Write the C-alpha cells for this entry.
Amino acid sequence: MSLLGTDLPFPVFRRGKVRDVYALGEHLLLVATDRISAFDCVMPQGIPDKGRILTQVANFWFHATRDLIPNHLVATQVKDYLAELQPYREQLEGRSILVRRTEPLPVECVVRGYLAGSGLKEYQADGTVCGLKLPPGLRLADRLPEPIFTPATKEDEGHDINISFERMAEIVGEERAAQLRQVSLALYQRGVELAAQRGILLADTKFEFGVLPDGSLIVIDEVLTPDSSRYWLADTWRPGQNPPSLDKQFLRDYLETLPTWNKQAPAPDLPQPIIQGIRERYLDLASRFGVEV
Ligand SMILES: Nc1ncnc2c1ncn2[C@@H]1O[C@H](COP(=O)(O)OP(=O)(O)OP(=O)(O)O)[C@@H](O)[C@H]1O
Ligand SMILES: [Mg+2]
C-alpha cells in the first residue's frame, strides 16, 4: 500500500509534489509521502515505502555531511516530536522529519560530474551548460573534466530554468552565490566518495539552501536522495549509453516510450511492473547505505 497524502490537523505550509509540509511554529514537519513525480507531474500511483526510503537516505546524508555545512534536522523520531504529534506516530514514523523553518533561497544548486538530463540537452544545443563551456565531443553519461555548478531557478509552475552563475549572483548576491557554489561542490564531492565505496556513481544532484534569522546558511529539503540525484551502477556505466540507474530514470525512460502522453498533467497510470521496478531500485540504493526501511 502506498501513502498518497496526509491529512493532519495542523496548518499546511505547503503540499509539494512529494512531501506534505506542516507549519509548527519555528519548525516545519516534512512528511514524505509515496508520491513520485517525473517531468514535474505527479504520477497517479505511489511507490510503496518510497517516502520512508527517501527520508532514511536523506537522514544518512544529513549525518554524513554535517561537518561540511549545518542542516535543518531537529528530530527524526516521532518520540522526540511535540506531544500533539504523538497520536500520528504510525503514519509519521520513518517518513517524517522535524526541521528548522528557514527562508529558502530561490535557486536550486545543481552539481554535475557527468553529462545527462537538461545538462546534456543544453550541451548538445550550444556546447555549454549554464554558460560554462565544455570540451567538444562529449556523449551521454560522459564524465566531465571536473564537477560543475549549474544553478537553476525555482519555478512554482513548470520546469526549473538553468541559469548562469552571474544570473544567480544577481538573484542572491555575489557573496552568497560564491558560498553556495563552494558548499554545493563540497557536498557533491562527499557524495561521490561515499557512493564510490558502494559501487555507485553520483552523476549529479540538486541542493536547496535556506537562511536562518541570524543570516547563516544551512542545507534544507533533502540531500542526495534518489529523487534529487542521479545514481548509476559503476560496473555497468559506459559513456554513450543510458546507464542502469538507482533513481527515477527508470520511470522517465518508461514514460518516454508512451506515444500519447505529452508530459502534461494528468500523468498516465503506471503498470505494476514499473511500480515494482522503481521500488526495487530505490530499495537497492537504500540497502547500499545500510538504511533500514
Ligand atoms: N527547512 C526548510 N525551510 C523552508 N522550506 C523548506 C525547508 N525544507 C524544505 N522546504 C520546502 O518544502 C518543500 C518540500 O516539498 P517537495 O519537495 O515535495 O516540493 P516540490 O514539489 O519539490 O517543490 P519545490 O519545487 O519547491 O521543491 C519544498 O518547497 C522545499 O523548498
Ligand atoms: Mg522538492
In short: The mean pLDDT is 97. The chain is about 30% helix and 25% strand.
